[in-house]
Amino acid sequence: MNNPTDKQINRWVEQISESHRESFDRLFRALYPQLVRFSVRYTGNKAAAADLAQDAFVVLWKKRHELKQIDSPKAYIYRMVRNRSLNYIRDHSSKTTGLEAMEEPRVEMNDDEEQEERQMNLLKGWISDLPDRRREAFELSRFEGLDHDEIADVMGISSNTVNNHIVAALEYLKERHLSYREEENSKAKGYD
């Protein structure tokens, strides 16, 4: 089950709290890939993100008897991964391996693919330009599929503040996109 419902996650967590290993395995298989992608956005390191997500599940199992007290298990797990990712950044911020400077190999693309990649890179850049908390709320909503209450729980803010962050992010991205389109149209007409 790649995209379980909140109801299914809650049922698994309830079963995990009673030490059902099969439910733990199902939860792990369903959420682990999403949590790794989520952590990579913070760490920039897929191997570290995989370890951090796995570590969160280890802690979840160890604390399984306390899980019945949690209102939103999905948000709880995301918060665990977020906190581990932030700790990883803090602990590794001054360490570099030299691999960061290596370029990825260039793959030949046709014009449509290059245009699509250019637009995706622009969008990623615009998203990265958002203030940190606004970007986090936006990414949790649009890329991780969390609802406002879950995001509020992960970020430790109210759901109204989450809504304000997402609305502001969407307005900013819309403005950037319109500006980009106008610039492209003007270049195409030869006004630039």
In a nutshell, what does this entry contain?
The chain is mainly α and 192 residues long. The chain has helices spanning 6-16, 21-43, 46-62, 73-92, 111-129, 132-142, 148-155, 159-188.
Helix content: over 70%
Low-confidence stretches: 96-107
Task: Estimate nothing, just give the exact number of structural domains.
Answer: 2
Q: In oligomeric terms, what are we looking at?
A: single chain
Overall mean pLDDT stands at: 85
CATH H-level superfamily of the largest domain: RNA polymerase sigma factor, region 2, helix turn helix motif
Query: In whole angstroms, how far apart are the ends?
Result: 51 Å
Number of helices: 8
CATH class of the largest domain: Mainly Alpha
- Rg value: 20 Å
The CATH topology assignment of the largest domain is Rna Polymerase Sigma Factor, Chain: A
Structural class: mainly alpha
H/E order of the elements? HHHHHHHH
